[in-house]
């Protein structure tokens, strides 16, 4: 139901929302300004909008799950990075900075 019968090239939440806005506006315009010429065609059109809505919900659920999976992977990588011991040069540098701070405060 895109403008000018274009198809969604990339499935994103923003694109899904745009599709739903277009469908909503089309339906609203038809309700306010249109008239039903053929009841059977109108029933089919309503069913198609219901299917479109269900597809949008499914796509959004898939995107949400994908984002959760990516976040879980990032958390896993962060946990692994935290658990790795610091390289010796970092430990030595930190120790040197601590020693300098101690000297400063002792004086």
Features:
107 residues, mainly alpha, rod-shaped
Structure report:
The protein has 107 residues and is mostly helical. The chain has one domain (3-106). The chain is built from 3 helices and no strands. The termini are far apart.
What's the oligomerization state?
single chain
Mean pLDDT: 82
Outline the low-pLDDT stretches: none
Rg over C-alpha atoms, rounded to the nearest angstrom: 29 Å
SSE sequence, one letter per element: HHH
- SS summary, helix count: 3
Question: How is this structure best summarized?
Answer:
With 107 residues, the chain is mostly helical. The chain has 3 helices and no strands.
Q: Can you lay out the helices and strands and say which pair or pack?
A:
Elements: H1 13-33, H2 39-83, H3 88-106
Helix pairs in contact: 1-2
